[in-house]
Protein: Molybdenum ABC transporter ATP-binding protein
Organism: Roseobacter ponti
Amino acid sequence: MLNVDLKHRFDDFTLDVSFEAPAGITVLFGRSGSGKTSIANAVAGLLQPDKGRITLAGRVLTDTAKRIRVPSHKRRVGYIFQDGRLFPHLSVAQNLRYGRRFAPRNAHPADPDHVIGLLGIGHLMDRRPASLSGGEKQRVAIGRALLAGPDIILADEPLAALDAERKAEILPYFERLRDEMPVPVLYVSHDIPEMSRLASTVIALKDGRVAGQGPADEILSDASATPLGVRAAGSLISARVVAHHPDGLSELEADGIRLLLPRVPGEPGSRVRVRIDAQDVMLSLSEPVGISALNVLPATLTAMRKGDGPGVIVQLDAGGTALLARITRRSADALDLQPGLKVFAVIKAVSVPRDAVTSDPAQGE
């Protein structure tokens, strides 16, 4: 468990946060300039806060009141940057060994063969960084961090410099890191699909403050905790794969509701996580008939949030599953939407892209 409680004044804003980051991937999420990287740097010892206390697995890293500041090289922190920062004159194998060389004597670094297999970099051992793709460089950087025997890994927007194809290549490796390795990860991001896919826990930041914190599915389905505004709102649903049908659709079950989506990964009985954008959810006061949409879910309206523009975020409870719908104010007024109203949420199966469905990190619990 990482515990962070710090306050630091910059020229243009004040960072004032307090949160806990448990095992898994904890995502620091918010707009650029909200303080995400500054928090990661404080954990790494690269930023000394004006006031605060940071502990990792019960070990004090920073305590300004007691004038404790553990040097960066003794914090057992693995840092993954946007550009990988591999040594260009060393081979992949030598870069990996460099990380292992700095593991503390009493640490228990990961098994090299397991890490190399986990990251799929066995065929790269003799190559130099200049000959690697962006995704390959980041996989090697992850391996080097793991082999240093860290108590935590910090990842500062590690996919920001990659194009969509390279991101799709490396995301599964971060999922495997989350699901198979015991090292917790503090992950900086402002990319919603990326966060929805990876996060176990979300710390939502706004203007240097914590706007919301908790399990990813709860925070991302809470309209009041969305720091990027109504345009970025959506729901994260944990569901069980029921069946794969011959017509290419998969049937899912979540808290008693059924969803039909284009073929999803996983065998029947496995659990997946589904991201549904609020703008892809329509509302009806009566159960619609004779429509092409396959998912019509009875729900209760629980809350509404109006943005600065014409949009409104409607929060729904669909049999225990939280859903968000984004509609216009004009539609909300025409339907006379109020908390407690019974409605039907309509979701087109094809509106949920394939990369919005991933394995559920809580599957093994």
The mean pLDDT is 88. The chain has two domains: 2-220, 234-359. The domain at 2-220 is CATH 3.40.50.300 (Rossmann fold). Residues 164-180 form the longest helix (17 residues).
